[in-house]
């Protein structure tokens, strides 16, 4: 029997978030993004050694910080260069839900030139999420033209 290289239900790339306060983060993600807890490996001190959540059809792994192993959360590092893109059926609903549970708006929701309705927020643990609903199927040429039009309008401002 051959074992698959990627576990059933997972994709080739799975985000792994380092968090200061993973127990609280799990509750936030459940409330804000309707995440489902798949597994949790607690530490003796009450922290999380490893946990897995499922949001929609995608898994996210997370754990508490472990500075001695160079695993630090975005707040300790002064920010993060990585953001997550979350597609949902109703961006307005999920965005408002996340804000109601402690996220902070970074960019408001609006229709984007690339065919999504999307906005960006920061969760209470320092991670950046763009939440979106795909609204239009566009060709690469259409997206490039819309981007050029968008950039042109930005220069006029």
Automatic annotation (TrEMBL):
SUPFAM superfamilies attached to this UniProt entry: Glyoxalase/Bleomycin resistance protein/Dihydroxybiphenyl dioxygenase
Domain of life: Bacteria
One Pfam family matching this protein: Glyoxalase
Domain annotation VOC: ranges: 9-134
PROSITE patterns linked: VOC
The protein's name in its UniProt record: VOC domain-containing protein
Organism field: Pseudoalteromonas holothuriae
